[in-house]
Amino acid sequence: MQTSVHWLENVAFQAKSESGHQVVMDGSAEYGGENRGPRPMEMILMGLGGCASFDIVTILKKSRQDVIDISCELNAQRADSIPAVFTKIHLHFIVKGRNIKEKQVAKAVELSAEKYCSASKMLADGGVEISHDFEIIEIDA
């Protein structure tokens, strides 16, 4: 996997992925930025949420759960000193669907956290305390 990051100006950078997608990252005005895009650390958090959600959707679909929608809300804490690494991250999954089995969602969340989510494993192995929970919202037929 490859990517490139190109400096635009001040503290704004444009990243381009191997698959051809681009995103602008920028800092806050406090650091000379213009708020033109997410912060680099926000990108890491978004990547974690996307990676874990990808796993959960595919696991639930394979277990024939009638999933309509999944979202993941992440809350992170960072160290007070430099480098301001993540110290704790909590992922809260909201699974919407019909007749979703709680046991299947719990298993999907556990499998993502313990086995499949590369981002989660990388952060946890680096010392970040990661926790998960979920809620199921039943959608009428």
Structure description:
33% of the residues lie in helices and 38% in strands. By secondary structure, the chain is an alpha+beta fold. It folds into 2 domains: 1-38, N-terminal domain of TfIIb, CATH 2.20.25; 40-138, GMP Synthetase, Chain A, domain 3. It has a 3-stranded antiparallel β-sheet, with no helix packed on it. Strands 4-5-6 form a 3-stranded mixed β-sheet, covered by helices on one side. A hairpin with a 7-residue loop joins β4 and β5 (86-98). The N and C termini lie far apart (42 Å). The model has no long low-confidence stretch (mean pLDDT 96).
Beta-strand residue percentage: 35-45%
Provide the CATH superfamily of the largest domain: K homology (KH) domain
Structural class label: alpha+beta
The CATH class assignment of the largest domain is Alpha Beta
| Count of helix runs | 3
At the fold tier of CATH, the topology name of the largest domain is: GMP Synthetase, Chain A, domain 3
Instruction: Work out the number of β strands.
Output: 6
Order of helices and strands: EEEHEEHHE
The tally of domains stands at 2
Let me know the average pLDDT: 96
Summarize the SSE layout with pairings:
Layout: E1 3-9, E2 12-17, E3 22-25, H1 40-62, E4 66-78, E5 86-98, H2 102-116, H3 118-125, E6 129-138
Parallel strand pairs: 5-6
Antiparallel strand pairs: 1-2, 2-3, 4-5
Helix pairs in contact: 1-2
